[in-house]
Specification:
Length: 87
Amino acid sequence: MSEHVTTPPAPPAPAHFTAPYAPLSDALAIAAFGVQNGVLSPVQRGVLLETSISGSLALITFDFDTAVTVTLFADTATTGTSLLDHG
């Protein structure tokens, strides 16, 4: 009898970026259209931030009726993913 041992995948690296305040604030205001109101789970009321080494920053939200993705350029960014509580 053989045993199959699997290791869980490594968690993604956190998003690290620098972006000007005004474009980031505008992007968060637009992303708010996809945030569910009145839920307790941070995942459902959060904004997923995805950064890439090319300097792009994507803000992603989804509330089962509306999906919103806003992409802007960051001054500096490393590849990563973070969840921002938008509640």
